[in-house]
Amino acid sequence: MKKDKVYVIGHKKPDTDSIASAIAYSHLKNEIDPSKDYVPSMLDDINPETVFVLSFFGVEKPQRIFHVYPTVEDSMTKRVLTANIKSTVYEVGNLIIDSGIRTIPLTDEKGFFHGLVTERRIARHFLREFNNISFDEYPIRIENLIKLINAEVVNKGSHNYMRGLPLIGTISLEDLKDCDCKSKILIVGDREDILIEGIKRGIKYVIVTDGAGIKDEVKKLARENNVLILRTDLSSFEIIRLLRLSLPGEVIAKKNPLVVSPSVLLKDFAEDLMESKDGVAVVLDDKGQVEGIITRHDLINPKRKKVILVDHSEKVQAVEGIEEAEIVEIIDHHRLGGLETAHPIKVLIKPVGATSTIIYDQYISYGIKIEKEIAGLMLSAIISDTLILRSPTTTNEDRNAVEKLSKITGVDPMKFGLEMFRKKLDISHITIKEILTMDMKEFRTSKGTFAVSQVEAVEPNVIISRKDEYLKEMKNILLERKYLFYLFMVTDVMNESSYIIAAGDLRPVEKAFGKNFENGILYLQGVVSRKKQVIPVILNVL
Ligand SMILES: [Mn+2]
To answer: How far is the centre of ligand 1, averaged over its atoms, from the C-alpha of 393 (Å)?
Structure first.
């Protein structure tokens, strides 16, 4: 049975800390809580720095998700019993009785869906006129029938299957004269006359009921005419009941029931399900294999997607549909961003350099072994977020984590960090717009929204020298998204300072820092942290 998923998600425009946190925390949670499937997820593709980090440590990037609105998958029943398409009605019926599940999809050997058997359809099967059921389309395997009616084989002939319409032998000889006997299955008790006349008229299949005796003359006639004769102690009434049950489940299955894909939004599908006759739909994956069953009952209490937010808690930075999801945990090192939850949840927010530092501490407190590649991701994330431990956001916890993680990985933090920052701004591989948006964050205030992008550069001049090109692109983004202003923070890793390039209304920014832009650039010595040294200062004057 498939486990319930919990999505572990970092912020939009993910940085290395967001991606590393999603992967490392999912890994930890899967270790300590095997009852669920914790899935690392991302909202946009990874940036060049993270590409470098993941490939260096040989880790796959998380799956990309686009929203967390409730879908069919969340509310469907995942524990689905299926029956093989060749199963008899008897077998499917017993499955329904034994399991208490009222709906059984029929599948072939490869798991592909072929039809749906419901209690209701079995009931209808028994209400239909038996005479209308032909065993031509669905011949009965004689081997199965012998077992089902506990029969003795009087004469087998060359038959493996039984075909035709049942003909109950309580008729008169006179009736038999008009019968198209070649297409009939004769069910008869102690009526030798009917038996002989039937065989003469071309009957090929006979079931003798009530343990009636069969004379040698009849047996001889059967051998000569290749007639199957089975004898049983059961009555014709019981034979009729069991013949119905020996039909393949396929006969009574609904061939084209309502089907739906697991990723369809529940609200888009609810009406179809409510209006459907059976009140049930089969959930099929892209290939046509059964994933689950969803019924009208499932709509009464639709389930929300479960998410763990890492490295953010602001709604603007979170996944689309977050208000309709169930947040089960938040692990972050930013300011609280105004999300609400219905229940008390685990929240770990600490003013440390990186979310990965908090996750490292969680590994230690749960006593879970940190694998080399996970250690590598967390190490890269802390180095990235703290500018190789130089940012004022750096704490002793970050320093401690970096020391321990570099021991596990055998990677030197300073050397690796510089290579990582160089790779990030490899201009030959990346456009100006990509550099601007790869670590861009929006901040909503009562006065309006502003945005701040940041890159950490070993050689900031590579960017500063192309200031006008950046500014042109920034003005486009500003107009498109109606920001109050848009800042681009180019942080000099080696000199621990930042150059601010800005578009829009610059007055609040100049006021905040008590300094004017010169030549379109505001140079801030000692400022490297957007979160700690830029955002609070600006929010203060807005
Ligand atoms: Mn972070």
So the answer is: 11
